[in-house]
Amino acid sequence: MNNIVVGFDFSTGSANAVDVSIDIANKWHSDIRLVYVKKDGEDEGPIREEIERRNAGVAHLLKGIKLEYVIRQGKVSEQLAKQAEEDEALMVVVGTHGMSGFETNWIGKNTYRTITDSPVPVLSIREDFDFHKELETIVVPLDSTTETRQKVPFAARMAKTFGSTIHLLGLYTSESKDIRTLVDGYVDQVEKYLDKYDVKHTTEYVDARKNLTLTTLEYADKVSADLIVIMTEQEKALTSWLIGNYAQQMLHLSKHPILSIRPEQIGSQSR
Questions:
Q1: pLDDT tens digits along 175-192
Q2: I want to staple 174 with a disulfide (CB 3.0 to 4.6 A). Which of 75, 179, 216, 248 is the partner?
Q3: What is the largest CA-CA distance in the chain?
């Protein structure tokens, strides 16, 4: 089907996720499927009534696409992953809180697990993000890991869709000349790729030896990023064990939407 799957739980964050999904789906000519994962014993009647009421409220925003929903039962992350696989989805979109909010909704609690379970990239959006702003600036951090370049095709597709500028961020995580040369080489390859597909881009290099996550987020704040695209396996060994791995840190600390891609999902980017 190649649609967009949206985790939905009636929270403000998941409502924002629906709005963002509609914008993307309209441009990609993709349908949207909302997924509500109910608890044991939860009555489906009121759930269906409320979802249908809300869907009717945004129906005028749909441009030749369908907005459908399904109610599933089980572990949230597993059910979202199963739906994405069944639908051959392009991506999963979820809303989340981050560290600043008390996570009372199931999407916020299950965002990272959804990323690790999902067979496709996951776009996570903080509930306080201004989603009415145009997607103008996409930050793509590049480090010395082999996988770091693999997120670029999906990032480029997003940039072409929205007319965005990709900000390549070369991350020097070591004083080693060999490591820095690797980063330089990867950035150069990505620049040539973006030039080939006529994607607007800029490049900056920063020293990220102290904290990869905070360095990335400081740059994202500086350029007023609308999206950060990461690989979930990026530089895991260099992140702080006090907070968790790179993807977990980004999800907890970033006020910007995060598009998370696992290396094994790369094949889905060509669809």
A1: 999 999 999 999 999 999
A2: 179
A3: 62
Helix axes 212-222, 246-253, angle to 10 degrees: 40
Token pair listed for 62: 């749909």
Domain boundaries, the chain: 4-126, 137-270
Please name every residue paired with 166 in a beta bridge, in sequence order, or none if there are none.
Answer: 138, 201
Give the tens place of pLDDT for each residue, 60-93: 999 999 999 999 999 989 999 999 999 999 999 9
Burial class (CB in 10 A: 0-12, 13-18, 19+), 184: middle
Please indicate whether the domains covering 4-126 and 137-270 agree at the CATH topology level: yes
pTM confidence score: 0.88
Query: What CATH topology corresponds to 137-270?
Result: Rossmann fold (3.40.50)
Please state the three-class secondary structure of the chain as a single string: CCCEEEECCCCHHHHHHHHHHHHHHHHHCCCEEEEEEECCCCCHHHHHHHHHHHHHHHHHHCCCCCEEEEEEECCHHHHHHHHHHHHCCCEEEEEECCCCCCCCCHHHHHHHHHHHHCCCCEEEEECCCCCCCCCCEEEEEECCCHHHHHHHHHHHHHHHHHCCEEEEEEEECCCCHHHHHHHHHHHHHHHHHHHHCCCCEEEEEEECCCCHHHHHHHHHHHCCCCEEEEECCCCHHHCCCCCCCHHHHHHHHCCCCEEEECHHHHHHHHC
- What would you report as the CA-atom Rg of the chain, rounded to the nearest whole angstrom? 18
- How far is 178 from 182, CA to CA, in rounded Å? 6
